[in-house]
Specification:
The chain is mostly beta strands and 85 residues long. Helices cover 7% and strands 40% of the residues. It has a single domain, classed as EutN/Ccml (OB fold (Dihydrolipoamide Acetyltransferase, E2P), Beta Barrel). The chain has a five-stranded antiparallel sheet.
Length: 85
């Protein structure tokens, strides 16, 4: 998994039939690289997200038949600083 934050949004009014509804978001990773990831959750700019890539992303979206290799799987909340006893 890759952790990053959303820095932009791209709209695609024309898509191949098998691509699900959602936005394409530009995510800047912790290493400073940027990727475009499919977002089916409705994340927004500035949100911290977790992204899966490769066959894991494609498999979740339809058994590897969809040509998407990056998928946002979660929006991260702030880490808790309180320790559990």
């Amino acid at each position: 998994m890759i952790r990053g934050h959303v820095i932009g949004r791209y709209w695609a009014t024309k898509r191949i039939d098998h691509v699900p509804s959602g936005a394409f978001l530009e995510v800047e990773t912790e290493s400073g690289s940027r990727i475009i990831a499919m977002d089916v959750l409705g994340c927004g700019e500035g949100e911290e997200v977790m992204v899966v890539t490769g066959s894991t992303a494609a498999a979740w979206l339809g058994g590897g038949k969809i040509p998407i290799d990056a998928l946002i799987i979660g929006s991260l909340d702030q880490p808790s600083s309180a320790k559990k006893k």
